[in-house]
Write a structure and sequence with these properties.
This protein has 21 helices and 13 strands. The chain is of the alpha/beta class. The longest helix is centred in the last third of the chain and has 35 residues. The chain starts with a strand and ends with a helix.
Length: about 500
């Protein structure tokens, strides 16, 4: 049977940064099968992603054929609650159809949609797999992960305690910014190493795929003239105002570079929106009829990366757009985002601005668009060296896992079995939902008895009669009769 590693992360949603993490591991572990596990089962191969298995169901199906290692690799996963993870994995149309009722029911929805894990979306409790000596049958690693918002949960000691308990089961922890490392130490008494986000090596590990994408006719048409790439998530555009954002695009075109390319980093819930970018483009063209503005709609990750890597300058709210521009030596202006600021303060030695408000985009782009790219490449080389060193450490830990028990074989049938288990769980939830709904309906029917219905009708007549009496109607003569009927009903 084939040796394998289970990679765990948010690979089950359309967000190009999350999908890129395993690409880097494929480069460093070429002879080992890499299974991708997420909060839910999903097939995102159509956009360059993976067949993703629900992590806990998959491990349950492996029985004694456990992986060499389980690696939680990349992403702001340390604190993400399951409610947020589920909402990001549901199709945006599903949430919009539910509308205002979703926020009040997200906990119950998360419990029913993903019942196999606890309160955290991507940090799991592996204690059920412990062997008789108390050890896990695989190496557990958290590598280059983020948790820059730990302080947000300072009033939730139970939540922080659960995070601490789970990550302390691991053999190795590295985080991607000083803030996360400092907060883990001071708040949870957890020591972690510091390592850059692995996507910082993308121009080395996947240069050929990105070059190939640049040659397809669709991408060639987009990148043929110099352009500014603009990426912003839905929340930022809406909080700025769509009209205002459109004016920023028009001003960028008239003052800096004629061509603007709009591209979302992801279309998962809580991320970007193609529809909103199209609205921005439409309004920008109304303000500046000669504006050359393109909305890049294709979701294939290699096309996304090609458009980023060929930009003259990038403006973004996404951390991974910034990380990719550093890898390719491209000037970049990052908008307000706590995790971007935490990362840039930790690793970037160049002068590319971050934590910029939308009102200052044009001014900041004017400053950096002709910035010396050699300086950016110097910063990128330092980051790449640290990533390689960290990945060698991870490799050494896995190579020393021979003392662990388990057959190390990938049971390929477990892919289907894990998805089947998840599907069965969802079916069970649906069945019980229908049964409960109909049980309450029958109870309501019994409550609404014949006697109760008569009482309802009589009270309705009484109210109307009182209303008409006040208006001076002759219906007041009916009052004694109605009261008599009401008294009779009361004593039945």
């Amino acid at each position: 049977m084939t040796q394998y590693i289970l990679l765990v992360g948010a690979y089950d949603r359309d967000n190009f940064g999350d999908i890129l993490f395993p690409k880097i591991y494929e480069y460093f572990f070429p002879g080992i099968s890499l299974v991708k596990g997420g909060l839910m089962g999903r097939d995102l191969r159509n956009i360059g992603g993976y067949q993703v298995v629900p992590t806990k169901f998959f491990l349950d199906c492996q029985r004694n054929n456990f992986p060499l290692a389980v690696i939680h690799c990349g992403g702001e996963i340390l604190t993400l609650p399951k409610t947020s993870g589920v909402s990001m994995n549901l199709h945006p149309d599903t949430i919009s159809r539910v509308g205002k009722y979703y926020p009040g029911n997200e906990y119950e929805i998360a419990e029913k949609v993903s019942s196999s894990v606890g309160e955290l979306a991507y940090v799991y409790d592996y204690s059920k797999y412990k062997q008789s000596d108390g050890s896990l049958p695989f190496k557990l690693i958290y590598n280059s992960v983020g948790g820059s918002d730990l302080r947000k949960y300072k009033d939730r000691p139970d939540y922080l305690s659960e995070i601490s308990r789970r990550i302390k089961q691991s053999d190795y922890i590295s985080v991607r910014d000083y803030k996360t490392r400092t907060d883990l130490d001071s708040m949870l008494n957890v020591e972690a190493k510091l390592s850059p986000d692995v996507v910082g090596m993308i121009s080395t590990t996947n240069r050929q795929e990105i070059l190939n994408a640049s040659k397809n006719s669709y991408v060639k048409n987009i990148i043929k003239n110099p352009y500014i790439l603009l990426q912003a998530n839905k929340e930022l555009i809406l909080s700025t105002g769509v009209n205002k954002f459109a004016k920023i695009c028009a001003d960028l075109s008239s003052r800096v570079l004629p061509k603007i390319v709009l591209q979302p980093a992801g279309t998962a819930g809580g991320h970007g929106s193609l529809e909103l970018l199209k609205e921005v483009a439409y309004l920008a063209m109304k303000k500046n009829p000669g504006l050359d503005i393109v909305v890049q709609e294709d979701r294939n990750i290699w096309n996304l990366l090609s458009v980023i890597s060929n930009a003259k300058c990038a403006v973004c709210s996404s951390l991974h757009v910034r990380v990719v521009t550093l890898s390719y030596g491209i000037p970049c202006v990052s908008l307000c985002n706590n995790k971007v600021s935490a990362y840039a303060k930790t690793w970037e030695m160049d002068k590319r601005p971050y934590n910029i408000v939308p009102e200052n985009i044009v001014t900041e782009v004017e400053k950096v668009i002709d910035y010396n790219r050699e300086e950016i490449f110097k910063a990128s080389k330092l980051v790449e060296d640290k990533i390689e060193k960290n990945m060698r450490q991870v490799g050494n830990i896995i190579n020393n896992s021979s003392s662990k028990s388990g057959l190390r074989g990938l049971n390929k049938h477990a892919f289907f079995e894990a998805i089947s288990k998840e599907t069965d769980t969802l079916r069970d939830a649906l069945v019980f939902e229908i049964v409960e709904k109909n049980r309450y309906r029958s109870q309501l029917k019994r409550i609404k008895s014949k006697k109760a219905y008569k009482l309802y009708v009589l009270v309705s007549k009484l109210v109307k009669a009182v209303h008409n009496t006040i208006k001076g109607s002759m219906h007041c003569l009916l009052l004694p009769v109605l009261c008599s009927d009401l008294m009779e009903l009361t004593y039945v």
